[in-house]
Known about the structure:
alpha+beta; SH3 type barrels; five-stranded antiparallel β-sheet; four-stranded antiparallel β-sheet; disordered N terminus; binds zinc ion
Amino acid sequence: MRRWVWALGLSLGVAAIVRGEIVGLKHGDVVHGTIESQDEKGLRMKTFDGAELTIPWDSVAPEEAERLKKTLGLIVAESDDTIRIPGLRVTLASGDVVTGVELPGSTKDELRLKRADGPQTYPRNQLQSVEPDDIDALEAYKPKELYKLYVDEHGAPASVEDHFAAFEYARRIGAYEESLDHLKKCAELDAEWKPEVVKAQREGVEKILASVEARGLFEKIRRDVRSGEFNKAIAEVDDLTKRYPDSPILADLSKEKLTKEKIVDAQKTYFKKRISGDWISNVKELIRSKVREKDLSLQEAKNWTEKDLPDQTAKKVAEKLGIDVGTVRELWKGRVTLGNRTASYGNGTFLIEKLKPKKPPTTSGGSSGGGSSGGPRRRPSSQQQQSQADQGPKKPTPEEWWTAASPDVRAEWLRAYYAERTKDLEVARIDYSQCVKCSGKGYLSTLSGSGDVTYLPCDRCWQLGKDRVVHFR
Ligand SMILES: [Zn+2]
């Protein structure tokens, strides 16, 4: 049975230090001896004839220097030797190959596979093949899971050497935080133990960790800009620049137009585009809840619309967009509108409209009279006209109309009023739609039993025949 190959190659760095070395120099010379010590400047070697030499790194042949630095632990190699564990290589119907470790829940019909991105279930009849194989451990486990398995297998490290081995393993699998913890532990337990190696490795891992974190922050900035979270993104750019001033990722910020200035620009453009919709929808919402207030009079509603609604709207929009009220007002002034919006006073048009009321016809033609070509016509006396008007419905006072109106009718009436009466909006034009009850005539006619037509003022538009419609932007 195969064993997991945890420890393979883990402690090369430490072992190599006391071994005899042949070091190739730049100009073709070689030095035979043992390496006594090393740091970022160079090597101290003791040759076999007893001489002690200090060799700066720039005297060593470049590829030789890199090999030695890696061996001596002075640079952190991005390890490419994958950790392999026994697992399964599964070929799907599509021809794609996945690898993982079989989970206990598998049946004869279904294969359950542990994968780094979570457990997967495959119906066996849809698989081309399932073969045991040595697979990349990171295909089946996340770095943290793999690290935990290592600790479970080896027990908690106690000695400096154990911690260093744990560090190297954690680093290889990409569990950088854990690897750094072990390095710190090495220094704590024995400050004299390969201080250069520990220091160099620590710097290397910190660099990797920083670049991983910087990359994560960078991705976050990109996501936040895409979802319109500009203030968050700006704070994150500050954070990234402050925490990782030397990171090459800062160059990517400008490459992808994610600098602070660019984000502020993008934010302005974005707000300019959406301010119009946001403003209007907040006006609507505020009006909608206002008109539902109990015992609210028309006069109060009008006062509120003119005096309070503009400020309340600016405040609500500011909250929603996460900017201050002044900026909202500025944006609103510079808004980009795609077209006009409309609001109609509806059957409350008579409250504000100064149009002349339509008079009903003064004649009352009987059905027996036939066409208009002649015949005697009875002119109704002025007294009769008066009595007709008296018979008709009584025009409500504005407050009566308001009290009787539904919340929807009230709300639209106030929107039209807001558009005309405040400076928030620009009225593009006013036009009229026909009264739906009298078809624009202003009066209603009824046929009496005797065939006479009686005219009554329309009790919707009150003889205006139309609704006032405000087009605004
Ligand atoms: Zn009407």
